[in-house]
Amino acid sequence: MTDDLQIPRHEEGGTFCVAALYHFAAFPRFESFREPLLALCKAQGIMGTLLIAREGINGTVAGTDAGIAAMLAFLRAQPEFANLEHKESRASKMPFLRMKVKLKKEIVTMGVEDIDPNKIVGTYVDPKDWNELISDPDTILIDTRNDYETAIGIFRGAVDPNTKTFREFPDWVKNNPGLHNKPKIAMYCTGGIRCEKATAFMKQQGFEDVYHLKGGILKYLENVPEEESLWDGACFVFDERVSVTHGLKEGNHLLCHACRHPITQEDLASPHYEPGVSCPNCYETRTQADRDRYRQRQKQIALAKERGEKHIGS
């Protein structure tokens, strides 16, 4: 293996390297890039999901250190992604079941036309400077993630929009004139992509002093010591680890395989919790027929486990 692949350093905490990445760039050839990228990832034994669109690339994948290094080198060899940055964490087992490269209209779906972070965006703030900004009484701190994510962790003092999807965020901003009451707006998300697009939207709406956490919560938890941290709880991640905590250590949350929401210790004690079938977050929104179908799936998962196999729906 050549030095230019820059193989990530193997750290304590897991066999697999998990790479979260995104990059906004004009990428009109995204459709023809799908097959070469998918072939490279499969050849390297990488699993996860990458989204490519006219506006760039976004996704999270996992593999060996050498495999991830090869994929990153391949991406950065493309002129559009030469400056692509990524974040790494570790997983004790492969957190994905398959490899997918999807063609999309947007790499993160806001549903607003003419939002281009390549042209207008907020001011990046390094994790080491974040505490000072969000402790400023002239700052409104906004979490741009969805309600199931904020339920298990959030920065102290942050405003939670309680959105179900990122598409709801623009309307939430327009319906909250109080956001103009303070001169500074600080925003954050898991890895940086949603708040980068959100700051572009805020600037378009006339907000001037708009800031966002560079590298997102993941970079903050990696770089800021726990004793200095203003983060409470765990950070939801979109893979089978479910959550990570300070130092990017794997959290102790489970996932409801009926609705994909994280499950807390309180949820486990609920009469509406049944492994793989329901939890308090989805019990009222699923029918009895749904739950019967989920029970059959769980039965197949259990049988596959007895045979020493992994069921694709587990």
From TrEMBL:
Catalyses which reaction(s): uridine(34) in tRNA + AH2 + O2 = 5-hydroxyuridine(34) in tRNA + A + H2O
EC supergroup of this enzyme: oxidoreductase
GO molecular function: oxidoreductase activity, acting on paired donors, with incorporation or reduction of molecular oxygen
Protein name per the record: tRNA uridine(34) hydroxylase
Originating organism: Rhizobium oryziradicis
Protein family: Belongs to the TrhO family.
Source organism phylogeny: Bacteria, Pseudomonadati, Pseudomonadota, Alphaproteobacteria, Hyphomicrobiales
Superkingdom assignment: Bacteria
Keywords: Oxidoreductase, tRNA processing
Domain Rhodanese: 135-229
Originating gene: trhO
The enzyme's E.C. designation: 1.14.-.-
Function: Catalyzes oxygen-dependent 5-hydroxyuridine (ho5U) modification at position 34 in tRNAs.
Pfam families: Rhodanese, UPF0176_N
PANTHER family from the UniProt entry: RHODANESE-LIKE DOMAIN-CONTAINING PROTEIN 7-RELATED, THIOSULFATE SULFURTRANSFERASE/RHODANESE-LIKE DOMAIN-CONTAINING PROTEIN 2
NCBIfam families in the record: PRK00142.1-3, PRK00142.1-4
GO BP, sorted A to Z: tRNA modification
